[in-house]
Amino acid sequence: MPAPVDFDASAERSRIAETLLASSARLLRVRNELEIIKGVCESMCNASSHIRLAWTWFGPTGTDIIRPQVYAGSASEYAANMTIDRNLLTDLGPAFRTLRGEATEAFKISRWSLFGPWREVSRSHGVRSVLAVPLHSSFSEMAGIFVIYADRERYFEQVGEGLFIALGALFSSVLSASAERVELEQVINHDPLTGLLNRRALTIVERRIARQSLFDPKSFVLVVDLDHFKAINDTHGHATGDEVLRRASSAMRNLLRRDDDVMRWGGEEFLVCLANTSQEDALKVAEKLRAAIEALRAPVPVTASIGVAEVMPQRALSDAIDIADKALFDAKQGGRNRVCMRV
Which of 55, 69, 94, 295 is the most buried if burial means most Cβ atoms within 10 Å? Predict the structure, then answer.
C-alpha cells in the first residue's frame, strides 16, 4: 500500500527523537549491550509508522556472512531469515560497502530491484527506501552496519540522515563495549588458579570505567587482602592455600554485579572495580565481601582486610589504587578483618 501523500518530515523527526530520549533512562539501565540496541530499534519503529524494520550486525571486518543480530519492526520476520553471503555481486552492494566504512547512503528499492531480498521486502512490507549506516570501532578488527527500512521514497532525505547517523555512533560505542567484555571473558587476561582477571586486564578495565563515567562519574576501587595468608601456607601447605584463594575468589565474584570487575592483583591480594557506584554502596559492598570471606571457614578459617578509594575524574585508575592501598594499610594497622576508606 503506498504511503500517504501528506508527510510532515519535521514532525516525524521530532517524534522519533522525543521517543528515543524518553526511553533512554530505561535503556541505559539495561546491562546487556544487544538488549540496549534492540530497545532503541524498537522505540524508533514504534515512534514511526513509516519505519518497517531496523537491524544491526557487528563483528570482524573480514566476515563472509552477514546475518542481522538485533532487529525490530513489523518486517522482523524478513530480518530473521536474512543471510547476506559475500560474493561478486554482494561485495559491491550496500551491506559490504558499508561494512568497509564507506559513507552512509540511502537506496531506493522496489519490486524490480536487482537484489532479490529487496524485491521480497518491497512486495511483502511496502518498503521503498533503505538507509545503511556504518558502525565503527577502535577496538580490534571490528566494524558493523545499521540498516533502516522505510515505506516512503526519499524518506531519509526528507527526515534527515543525521538522526540515524547519530544512532549509529551510539551503537558503535555500545557494541565496542560489548566486544571488549567478550575479550575480557575469553582471552588470556585471567588468572589460571582463581579464574579471575589478572593485572594484564587493567588497561581494558580502566577504559571501560572511563566510558561508563560519562553517564555516572562515581566509581570506586577496593583492594582486598587475605589476612595472615603466609601463615596458612606455612602451616597447612600450598594446596590448602590455593583452595582458600579459589573459595575467596568465588565468594567475591558471586556477590558482585555482572559488570563489576574483580582481579587477582598478586599473591593473596585482589582488586575490585565498582563503576557507577555511590560511596555508601561501595562501602556496603566492601563489608559484604569481608563478611563473605570470614564466613567461608573451610578449608581453614580466613579473614580479609579491605581498603576503599574513589576513582576521581580525569585521574588515572592507578592513583585510586594507590590510595586504596594506603586505606588497606590502615585496616591492617587497625587490627585486620575490617574495611577502611581514604579520600
Answer: 55
Single-letter code of the amino acid located at 43: S
And the C-alpha cell for 87? 560474493
Strands (E), the chain: 51-60, 65-66, 70-72, 84-85, 105-108, 129-135, 142-150, 220-226, 261-266, 269-274, 304-310, 339-341
Grid cell for residue 155: 524518506
Q: How far apart are CA 223 and CA 12, in angstroms?
A: 51
Q: Mean pLDDT for each 10-residue chunk of the chain (343 residues)? A: 69 92 76 84 95 94 93 95 90 88 87 84 94 84 92 94 92 82 69 89 81 74 97 95 96 91 94 93 97 94 97 86 97 97 93
Contacts of 16 (CB under 8 A, 6+ apart): 44, 47, 48, 159, 163
Quick one: angle between helices 317-333 and 202-212, nearest 10?
100
Cα distance between residue 67 and residue 44, in whole Å:
21
- For residue 227, the Cα-to-chain-centroid distance in whole angstroms is 35
Q: Which of helix, strand or coil describes residue 313? A: coil
